[in-house]
């Protein structure tokens, strides 16, 4: 049994395809297939069911998969220990951020990191918070700027940058214009403008509603459109307080939902020396200015 066989096996399972797995490991597909057949012959059982449109695990394959992943993690940990002892900071760090986030100047932080560690390659992806958290937990990302509601997700450590109440942001033509607060019961009677499920703000709203379901009249993927729809008098927009500078912010009470934004990373490794250096930088970065001190920036922010 060879480590590359385990690597190919895990890649096929995660990609659901021999072709995509071969592209991922940069090996021709016949070579990947040959190594998997050799591994199955050695074990005496099929690990993969190839009869469907996508490749799936057999019962034996499902039992072997966590062991294969553990073996690969152990090898990675050994490599990282050697690199750290040698004082090497190189390789790749994989970073995620919520879509269209302007509350934190992550590019500036990454530029500062690159200046200090020019041999480290940085990759950056944008997605909603739920997707980023899942990618952190399964090891596809080293660090991400995410929004979330409630406690810190299990398995993650978070440097909180902002912890803000949600508001119903309305235009001057709205019946709630001029009000200081509305109850959650009142909110549920209105058609709302909101970001989609998977975002931190929507998660905070849904958590506050519990078993009740808010009536979403308009759903937009980024805050600028949410704000624009509210400015046109189409209803209350569900936003963090700092995002509502161009609208009248009405606080939500009974309960008062909050949304947090922060840098998140896996609580336990392996973390490469490069990833640890980036985590140290982001965990000590100055928090962003709030709406009170920087009102003109709010329309660019998202979670």
Automatic annotation (TrEMBL):
UniProt-listed SUPFAM superfamilies: Periplasmic binding protein-like II (SSF53850), Winged helix' DNA-binding domain (SSF46785)
InterPro entries to which the protein is assigned, alphabetical: LysR_HTH_N, LysR_subst-bd, WH-like_DNA-bd_sf, WH_DNA-bd_sf
Keywords: DNA-binding, Transcription, Transcription regulation
Domain of life of the organism encoding this protein: Bacteria
Record bears the keyword Cell wall biogenesis/degradation: no
Xref: Pfam families: HTH_1, LysR_substrate
Residue stretches making up the HTH lysR-type domain: 1-58
Coiled-coil segments on the chain, per record: none
Family (UniProt): Belongs to the LysR transcriptional regulatory family.
Protein name listed in UniProt: LysR family transcriptional regulator
């Amino acid at each position: 049994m060879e480590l590359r066989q385990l690597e190919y096996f895990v890649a096929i399972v995660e990609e659901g395809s021999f072709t995509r797995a071969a592209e991922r490991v940069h090996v021709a597909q016949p070579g990947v297939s040959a190594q998997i057949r050799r591994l199955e012959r050695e074990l005496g059982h099929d690990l993969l069911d190839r009869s469907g449109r996508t490749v799936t695990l057999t019962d034996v394959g499902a039992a072997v998969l966590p062991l294969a992943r553990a073996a690969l993690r152990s090898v990675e940990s050994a490599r990282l220990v050697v690199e750290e002892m040698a004082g090497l900071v190189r390789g790749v760090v994989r970073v995620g951020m919520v879509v269209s986030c302007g509350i934190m100047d992550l590019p500036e932080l990454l530029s500062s990191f690159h200046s200090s560690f020019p041999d480290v390659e940085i990759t950056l992806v944008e997605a909603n918070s739920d997707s980023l958290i899942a990618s952190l937990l399964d090891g596809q990302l080293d660090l991400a700027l995410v929004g979330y509601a409630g406690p810190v997700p299990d398995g993650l450590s978070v440097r909180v940058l902002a912890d803000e109440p949600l508001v119903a942001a309305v235009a001057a033509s709205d019946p709630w214009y001029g009000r200081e607060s509305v109850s959650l019961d009142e909110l549920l009677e209105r058609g709302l403008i909101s970001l989609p499920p998977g975002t931190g703000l929507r998660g905070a709203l849904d958590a506050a509603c519990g078993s009740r379901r808010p009536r979403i009249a308009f759903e937009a993927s980024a805050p600028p459109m949410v704000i624009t729809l509210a400015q046109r008098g189409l209803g209350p927009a569900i936003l963090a307080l700092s995002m509502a500078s161009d609208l009248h912010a009405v606080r939500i009470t009974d309960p008062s939902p909050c949304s947090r934004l922060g840098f998140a990373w896996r609580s336990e490794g392996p973390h490469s020396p490069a990833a640890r250096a980036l985590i140290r930088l982001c965990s000590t970065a100055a928090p962003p200015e709030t709406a009170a001190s920087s009102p003109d920036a709010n329309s660019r922010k998202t979670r």
